[in-house]
Recover the amino acids of this structure.
């Protein structure tokens, strides 16, 4: 027997699950493997490709059209900031999330100015990556520097937190 | 019997990647993880792993010093050092510290498995690029010595190096004392000795020394111009010791 509730249930079942398609860019295969391991905790996310330098990143962004490009800053051939600028022009549907060693507000500002929506520090990547991809794939900004954490307060601590 | 591996790296992402890579290997298991050198030494003591993989650039106790401690604790330790830099001096120090494997992080996916297999067979392993550098290094050594390069590190004791690292990372004497289970006064005595031995006059000088001697790691911005040093603790004004 069809009721309004039954109809809306059927509608929501018919709506396709949107896979978030992710391109991983980092010159260290170990880091890419680590990112992949963390990302695969979420069903509905798919790593569609990897790149190990800036040029390859741009090529793969164009051919794969990912929803999110996870990008390192320090890379051979073309650094991440340049990749971001170019990618945002050429493949504007792809959002950029930086995962970087640079725990620096200035670098973060530059990254956002280059068109990135996300900026996360590698030391906290395992913790922040999932939230970051969630937010960035919805075209919103997500940033998390290590210094902003409650753990790294300005007063000296008896037991320092990890960076 | 499985080969038991202890992983020490301060980045969880890297540990996840190493773990994923190594667990694919039949007969190997990750028996523990550590996020800094101190924890690595402690866990090695508890877990007695077959192989320890140590990142050079860890906070609190860096990989080289941790390697030394590991070998003091157990001379049969099989330590593989993971590093982003293949600088000549770093390689030599890693060897002097007792590491018998040296792998570049960028090549880890390719080389780490071979490194572990080598060490398990009581052989050494150097990432191929390092082999070339070692050879070139031996040739250079003769020239460098004739130029009278002073040995930089041997002038500090192990404890002094430890304290140098903590201070250069931005910790106060009090914080360092707490970490090392020493009194603040003891740390401050060490600090004066260090500054005197090295003829340094400020914390900034100490930071420069620590960077030059790879006691702490720095991050280079993409263009390689200004240095970006990320201190672990609060910023303090440049003050004479």
């Amino acid at each position: 027997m069809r009721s309004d509730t039954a109809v809306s249930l059927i509608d929501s079942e018919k709506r396709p699950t949107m896979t978030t398609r992710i391109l991983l860019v980092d010159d260290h295969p170990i880091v890419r493997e680590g990112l992949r391991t963390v990302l695969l905790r979420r069903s509905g996310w798919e790593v569609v490709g990897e790149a190990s330098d800036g040029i390859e990143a741009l090529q793969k962004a164009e051919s794969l059209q990912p929803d999110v490009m996870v990008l390192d800053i320090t890379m051979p051939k073309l650094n991440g900031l340049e990749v971001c600028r170019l990618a945002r022009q050429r493949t504007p549907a792809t959002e950029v999330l930086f995962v970087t060693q640079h725990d620096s507000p200035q670098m973060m500002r530059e990254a956002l100015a280059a068109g990135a929506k996300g900026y996360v520090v590698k030391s906290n990547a395992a913790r922040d990556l999932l939230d970051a991809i969630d937010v960035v794939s919805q075209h919103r900004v997500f940033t998390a520097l290590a210094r902003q954490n409650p753990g790294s307060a300005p007063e000296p601590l008896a037991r320092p937190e990890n960076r | 019997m499985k080969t038991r591996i202890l992983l020490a790296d301060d980045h969880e992402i890297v540990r996840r990647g190493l773990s994923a890579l190594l667990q694919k290997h039949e007969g190997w298991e990750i028996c523990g993880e550590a996020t800094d050198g101190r924890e690595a030494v402690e866990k090695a003591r508890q877990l007695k792993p077959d192989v320890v993989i140590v990142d050079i650039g860890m906070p609190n106790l860096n990989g080289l010093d941790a390697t030394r401690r590991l070998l003091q604790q157990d001379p049969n330790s099989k330590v593989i050092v993971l590093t982003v830099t293949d600088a000549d001096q770093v390689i030599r120090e890693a060897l002097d510290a007792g590491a018998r494997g040296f792998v570049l992080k960028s090549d880890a996916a390719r080389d780490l498995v071979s490194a572990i297999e080598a060490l398990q067979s009581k052989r050494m392993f150097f990432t191929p690029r390092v082999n070339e550098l070692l050879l070139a290094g031996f040739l250079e050594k003769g020239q460098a010595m004739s130029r009278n390069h002073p040995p930089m590190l041997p002038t500090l004791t192990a404890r002094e190096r430890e304290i140098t690292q903590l201070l250069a990372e931005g910790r106060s004497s009090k914080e360092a004392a707490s970490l090392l289970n020493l009194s603040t006064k003891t740390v401050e005595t060490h600090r004066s000795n260090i500054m005197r031995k090295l003829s340094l006059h400020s914390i900034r000088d100490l930071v420069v020394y620590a960077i030059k001697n790879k006691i702490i790691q720095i991050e280079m911005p993409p263009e390689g111009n200004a240095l970006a040093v990320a201190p672990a603790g609060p910023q303090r004004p440049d003050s004479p010791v």
